[in-house]
């Protein structure tokens, strides 16, 4: 017998003891054993433990019984299935016992067992078999109405079971429905309530036929508003509708036209509880079926607006009188200083506020309004006109719970009004977003007036609501609260000084103040600083660490906002500086503080010294020494390094001599640490110190730093390398003599880094700066010629050893560095250029040497002067005929770049060559593209017409590659003079042949960049006309138009946002499969189907994906989903795209996806179960695997919507996946991947 089994048998023996304490301790020990993962029970032990625990469930001692029930949970996972079934049978039998205590224990036991069962989705059949066992017994217990307690317990368990394991019980759904429906008319309220809950869970999991039966039953039972019916019966039916709406509202869409008018009528009955249920049902319908609720929105809105004010027992009109009295006497604030209770008119008895149910109606109406606003963003303008004023007036609501929901509804309105990403107010004409913001701006004074009193309300929750709402308002409309600062400051100070209530309100007030400092102009705070600062200082000294940390953050933000480094000081810091530095120093000196407070105190001191160091006087040196001390401490060193960076980078040029000699060796040691954040912060600090302190840096300490830097210049971490090279460049400029000592190892590492094909632009720019500093120092740290030969050595030596060639990118990096050196030493430019020309011309030069020479000349040639340039022309032209493709490309690039510096000479020559040399035209077009990109727009104006004419001659070329370069050249040419040239595109679109039209649309695509550009306003006026090309008869033109539209949506949505109503129908048209574009091609004995429309469809679906990222609020998602659904059955490429879109839609707008989830699953199932024909090529198998993987990802994304798992079709599909080992393994790996990987928010498609 194993040790565990022996231990358990001894425990079982003690459980039979007559002493209840023995039994209790033994059961407790058994519980501990069962909770261990390592425990393994043999069959005999299992049987004994189960038998003993079931016996203990009937123990005379309640505590032992409770412990025995708790043991059932962990036991379920440790014993075999038949033992679980034994437990369930015994518990069901106990449920029917005469003893109440035993029934209760059995009920708890069943719930415990159910909660521990593995979900059906894991492929275990245990849950299903147990539930089937229980279900029959539960239905009979519910149907027998002799004992209500048994009924209630059974309903509870059933509800629990349906919520977790609804789908596997498919076979019982019909009997469950027929058992539960009669309970809706039970005389007991508790039975009706539980039946309502269970029906809601059943509605989510049952088949469509049963759902229709349930909906019809509820609709048929609902009497007309004038038909006699008991209020309780109507209430139950409406509550049931609400429950079904919350759990399975997505399935109610088709019934809403019959349902909603009935519910609207019931709102007018004088029954507050019924009204609350009606509004809760409306809320569920609005959230789950926003589109189907469309026709009913006006009626529901007017009901909400009517009942959000429904407070028959209270008179709000005394508001005005009180305001005139201006009393602050708290004795009148029993009812929140807003009004007074009036007794109900006919009541003779004493009126009790406890009888008042109207607040529940108001709360339900407020929640319903929040659901309405969040589900219909398209109606925002009308919401601002109709809902906003009413919500603002209701801020004076007397009931705290209702007030919180009124605030919540207004906050939802604010969030919906927040402008979309990439929306630039300055650039846009008054669009929808602009007008919504304008309306909101008009509401700000009303909001402030309504909240003025609330900010000083005695209720903490009311003030928290005010702060949340105002913070959201400041985020949506930055700067809008500046003129109302007196009211806000008074409210903030009131909450900061409130020590009677919990600390959360003070933290909320501090967080709100911090946010305000970020959104409102600094001048708005100047007048209020004497009032604001004392309570903030008191919070800095507060003993509770969270308040102190928050207050230090506010203090730091105050210093940053009121005395900015990049502008003049408009406020004299003298009255405040002493108090601020004393409070921060006190926090900084204390050693027994919470880590967060320490870090915030260091950061705050850094800001104080950096922004106001010149006014600190005697406090400056102690502050710096404390910073030095914190540098030595492992816990605070990162914060101290960041604070030091801030101080060193301050324009106040603070004297850091007292700490430099000791700080630099400490910083040097940090460069060896494994902590990446610390290394990055240290490098930034060193660069700041070298820049500000320069010559005063002690050389001995700097040597320690420089010794550590070379090892950081490596491609293992490019970001660290970039900062290290930047620091080296700064040190070189400050103390060149020091760098001369270590230049050897540093250069060796740098040259190794420059040979990396993955070199980011930032690292390359840093390397250029460093090399320029090396040769620019006086005397130079390294000789110019030596440095150039070091740089170019890898290319020149390549021939000798015949090893693997360098990557193309390396040539560009080295050429940039050579050019940077030439710029730093103007006297060497001509010689360098001549040497490069010789290298390029020499017949003995390898292709690599020539490529490097041409790329270097492209950079150097512009500053080389006319001498070498004349010679260069001939060399470059000759190189365009080189047998090496790389040499031809480099020569073409160099010709354009050099030409940009000398247009009068080069452009006519270039245009002449294009006419004379048709075979080199493609390369010469590349040169022209480079010249157009590099030259100044004004210098190009005289040649515009010639270039324009030449390019349009080339638009009809047969090669697509050539037309692409022509389009890019046209795009760059239009930027020279947009108002004049852009309108000419329209003529070409109207008159040109298909290739010309295609080239023009592609050229317009090159005018769109992701940064604001002066051409944007002009381009916006023409976008509509260019988009008309979606109706062009030529396929290629339509594809180019879609590529242009995709680029606009992705990079600058504002260009097309207002045109989407016209564009979307045309876009959706392009997603349809056109039979007339599908043809059969005979390839020997085989027939092959070719779909000419595939590329256009693919482009259209890519546009749809981009629209999800930037214009989601403008889309009718139901219409959008129709086309996604078609795409799920299309070609391989399109299915891959639509699977990704479906996964994205499941995250972005789960409600409409949920409504049609049953239809979406079928194409996913077809993909997952498809088989590749035997004898197919390897690629076909790989394609099918990739499709399956992508479809599985979509399934996993759909399952993140909670209700999807309850859909019977999804449950069936999941069981199909589980039963197939290959699919099960694939699905499991995808679920693991999605759990571990951060969500990828967007996919690059432009």
Largest sheet: 2 strands, antiparallel
Quick one: overall form? globular
Task: Estimate the helix proportion, in percent.
Answer: 55-70%
Low-confidence stretches: 320-351, 422-430, 1239-1246
* Spatial sequence of strands, sheet with the most strands: 1-2
Rg is 38 Å
The total count of strands amounts to: 4
Oligomeric grouping of the chains: single chain
User: What is the residue-averaged pLDDT?
Assistant: 85
The number of distinct helices, counting runs of at least 4 residues, comes to 60
Gap from first CA to last CA: 68 Å
Helix vs. strand class: mainly alpha
* Fraction in beta strands: under 5%
Fill in the keyword field for this structure.
two-stranded antiparallel ribbon; globular; about 1250 residues; mainly alpha
């Amino acid at each position: 017998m194993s040790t565990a089994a022996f231990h358990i048998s001894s425990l079982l023996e003690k459980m039979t003891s007559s002493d209840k304490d023995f039994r209790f301790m033994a059961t407790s020990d058994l519980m501990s054993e069962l909770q261990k993962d390592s425990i393994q029970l043999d069959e005999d032990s299992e049987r004994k433990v189960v038998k003993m625990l079931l016996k203990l469930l009937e123990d005379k001692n309640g505590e032992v019984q409770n412990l025995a029930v708790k043991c059932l949970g962990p036991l379920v996972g440790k014993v075999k299935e038949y033992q679980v079934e034994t437990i369930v049978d015994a518990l069901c039998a106990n449920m029917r016992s005469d003893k109440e205590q035993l029934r209760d224990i059995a009920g708890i036991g069943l719930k415990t067992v159910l909660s521990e069962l593995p979900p059906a989705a894991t492929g275990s059949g245990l849950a299903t078999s147990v539930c089937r066992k229980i279900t029959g017994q539960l239905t009979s217990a519910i149907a027998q109405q002799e004992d209500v307690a048994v009924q209630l317990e059974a309903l509870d368990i059933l509800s629990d079971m349906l919520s977790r394991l609804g789908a596997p019980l498919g076979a019982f759904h019909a009997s469950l429905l027929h058992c539960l429906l009669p309970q809706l008319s039970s005389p007991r309220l508790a039975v009706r309530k539980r039946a309502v809950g269970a029906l809601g869970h059943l509605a989510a999991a049952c088949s469509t036929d049963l759902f229709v039966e349930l909906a019809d039953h509820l609709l048929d039972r609902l009497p007309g508003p004038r038909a006699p019916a008991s209020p309780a019966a109507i209430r139950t039916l409406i509550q049931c509708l609400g429950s079904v709406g919350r759990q399975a509202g997505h399935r109610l869409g088709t019934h809403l036209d019959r349902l909603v008018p009935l519910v609207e009528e019931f709102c007018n009955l004088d029954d507050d509880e019924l009204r609350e249920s009606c509004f809760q049902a409306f809320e569920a319908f609005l959230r789950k079926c926003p589109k189907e609720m469309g026709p009913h929105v006006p009626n529901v809105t007017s009901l909400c607006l009517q009942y959000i004010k429904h407070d028959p027992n209270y008179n709000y009109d005394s508001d005005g009188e009180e305001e005139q009295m201006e009393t602050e006497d708290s004795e009148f604030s029993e009812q929140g200083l807003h009004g007074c209770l009036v007794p109900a008119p006919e009541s003779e008895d004493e009126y009790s506020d406890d009888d008042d149910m109207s607040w529940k109606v108001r709360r339900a109406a407020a929640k319903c309004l929040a659901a309405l606003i969040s589900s219909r963003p398209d109606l925002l303008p009308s919401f601002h006109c109709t809902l906003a004023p009413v919500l603002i007036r209701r801020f004076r609501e007397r009931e705290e719970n209702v007030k919180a929901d009124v605030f919540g509804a207004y906050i939802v309105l604010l969030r919906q009004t927040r402008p979309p990403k990439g929306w630039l107010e300055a650039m846009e004409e008054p669009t929808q977003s602009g007008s919504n913001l304008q309306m909101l701006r008009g509401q700000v004074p009303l909001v402030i007036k309504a909240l003025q009193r609330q900010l000083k309300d005695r209720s903490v929750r009311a003030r928290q609501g005010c702060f949340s709402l105002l913070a959201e308002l400041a985020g949506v409309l930055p700067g809008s609260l500046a003129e109302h600062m007196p009211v806000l400051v008074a409210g903030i100070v009131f909450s900061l000084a409130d020590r009677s209530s919990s600390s959360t309100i003070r933290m909320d007030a501090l967080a709100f103040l911090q946010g305000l400092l970020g959104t409102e102009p600094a001048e708005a705070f100047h007048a209020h600083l004497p009032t604001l600062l004392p309570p903030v200082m008191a919070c800095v000294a507060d003993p509770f660490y969270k308040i102190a940390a928050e207050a230090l953050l506010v203090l730091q933000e105050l210093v940053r906002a009121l005395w900015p480094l990049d502008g003049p000081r408009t406020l004299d810091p003298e009255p405040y500086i002493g108090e601020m530095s004393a409070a921060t120093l006190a926090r900084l000196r204390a050693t027994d503080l919470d880590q967060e407070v320490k870090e915030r105190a260091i950061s705050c001191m850094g800001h104080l010294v950096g922004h106001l160091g010149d006014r600190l006087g005697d406090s400056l040196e102690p502050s710096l020494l404390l910073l030095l001390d914190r540098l030595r401490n492992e816990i605070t060193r990162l914060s101290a390094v960041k604070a030091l960076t801030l101080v060193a980078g301050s324009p106040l040029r603070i004297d850091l001599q007292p700490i430099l000699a000791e700080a630099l060796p400490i910083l040097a040691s940090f460069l060896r640490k494994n902590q990446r954040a610390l290394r990055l912060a240290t490098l930034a600090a060193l660069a700041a110190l070298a820049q500000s302190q320069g010559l005063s840096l002690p050389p001995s300490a700097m040597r320690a730093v420089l010794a550590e830097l070379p090892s950081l210049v490596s491609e293992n971490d490019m970001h660290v390398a970039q900062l290290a090279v930047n620091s080296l460049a700064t040190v070189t400029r400050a103390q060149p003599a020091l760098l001369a000592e270590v230049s050897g190892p540093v250069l060796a590492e740098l040259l190794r880094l420059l040979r990396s094909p993955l070199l980011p632009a930032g690292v390359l720019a840093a390397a250029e700066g460093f090399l320029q500093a090396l040769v620019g120092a006086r005397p130079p740290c390294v000789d110019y010629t030596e440095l150039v030969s070091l740089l170019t050595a890898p290319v020149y030596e390549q021939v000798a050893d015949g090893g693997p060639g360098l990557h193309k990118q390396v040539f560009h990096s080295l050429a940039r560095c050579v050019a940077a050196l030439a710029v730093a030493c103007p006297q060497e430019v001509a010689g360098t250029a001549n040497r490069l020309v010789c290298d390029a011309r020499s017949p003995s030069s390898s292709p690599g040497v020539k490529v490097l020479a041409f790329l270097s000349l492209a950079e150097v040639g512009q500053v080389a002067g006319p001498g070498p340039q004349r010679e260069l022309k001939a060399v470059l032209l000759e190189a365009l005929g080189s047998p090496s493709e790389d040499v031809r490309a480099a020569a073409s690039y160099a010709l354009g770049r050099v030409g940009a510096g000398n247009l009068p000479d080069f452009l006519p020559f270039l245009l002449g060559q294009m006419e004379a040399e048709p075979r080199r035209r493609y390369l010469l077009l590349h040169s022209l593209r480079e010249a157009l990109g590099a030259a100044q727009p004004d210098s190009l104006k005289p040649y515009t017409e010639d270039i324009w004419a030449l390019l349009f001659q080339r638009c009809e070329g047969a090669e697509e590659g050539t037309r692409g370069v022509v389009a890019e050249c046209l795009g760059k040419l239009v930027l020279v003079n947009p108002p004049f040239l852009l309108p000419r595109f329209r003529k070409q679109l109207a008159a040109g042949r298909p290739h010309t039209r295609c080239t023009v649309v592609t050229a317009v695509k090159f005018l769109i960049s992701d940064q604001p550009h002066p051409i944007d306003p002009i381009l916006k006026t023409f976008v509509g006309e260019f988009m008309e090309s979606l109706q062009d008869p030529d396929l290629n033109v339509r594809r180019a138009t879609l590529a242009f539209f995709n680029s606009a949506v992705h990079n600058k949505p504002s260009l097309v946002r207002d045109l989407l109503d016209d564009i979307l129908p045309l876009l959706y048209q392009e997603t349809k499969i056109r039979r007339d574009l599908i043809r059969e091609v005979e390839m020997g004995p085989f027939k092959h189907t070719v779909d000419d429309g595939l590329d256009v469809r693919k482009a259209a679906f890519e546009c749809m994906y981009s629209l999800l990222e930037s214009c989601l609020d403008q889309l009718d998602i139901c219409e959008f989903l129709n086309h996604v659904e078609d795409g799920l059955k299309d070609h391989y490429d399109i299915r891959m795209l639509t699977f990704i879109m479906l996964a994205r839609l499941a995250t972005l707008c789960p409600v409409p996806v949920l409504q049609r989830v049953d239809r979406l699953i079928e194409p996913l199932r077809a993909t997952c179960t498809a088989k590749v024909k035997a004898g197919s090529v390897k690629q076909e198998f790989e394609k099918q695997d990739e499709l399956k993987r992508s479809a599985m990802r979509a399934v996993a994304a759909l399952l993140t919507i909670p209700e999807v798992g309850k859909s019977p079709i999804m449950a069936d599909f999941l069981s199909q996946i589980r039963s197939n080992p290959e699919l099960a393994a694939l699905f499991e790996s995808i679920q693991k991947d999605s759990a571990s990987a951060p969500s990828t928010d967007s996919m690059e498609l432009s």
